[in-house]
């Protein structure tokens, strides 16, 4: 039996059950949950980086966004609040649309 030891989406046990397979799960503590979310975030970003086409890239970005939703909720926030913070930072420092790649800055 394969061992996964990772955070999965809420309906995965139900999906596995419909296949007739046996599985084992447990509910994480808050400390374990935030760590697992962070690890899952890295996993999803890596899958995005490895995506070979636009459809796969968008699928992985949707997974990243789901992680961001969960992280925001864990921290007592929302995607709306995070979006406001993002807009403020973009107003103050800009975004990444101009594709600027900083090479070096002269020391004083």
From TrEMBL:
Q: Which InterPro entries match?
A: MSMEG_1276-like_NTP-PPase_dom
The cross-references to SUPFAM superfamilies, in alphabetical order and at most eight, read: all-alpha NTP pyrophosphatases
Instruction: Report the protein name in the record.
Output: Nucleoside triphosphate pyrophosphohydrolase
What is the species of this protein?
Metabacillus rhizolycopersici
């Amino acid at each position: 039996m394969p061992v996964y030891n990772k955070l999965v989406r809420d309906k995965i046990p139900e999906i596995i059950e419909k296949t007739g397979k046996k599985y084992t799960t447990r509910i994480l503590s808050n400390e374990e949950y935030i760590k697992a979310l962070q690890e899952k975030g890295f996993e999803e970003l890596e899958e995005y980086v490895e995506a070979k086409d636009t459809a796969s890239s968008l699928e992985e970005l949707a997974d990243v966004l789901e992680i961001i939703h969960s992280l925001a909720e864990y921290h007592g926030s929302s995607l709306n609040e995070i979006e406001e913070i993002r807009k403020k930072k973009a107003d103050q420092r800009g975004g990444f649309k101009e594709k600027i790649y900083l090479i070096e800055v002269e020391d004083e």
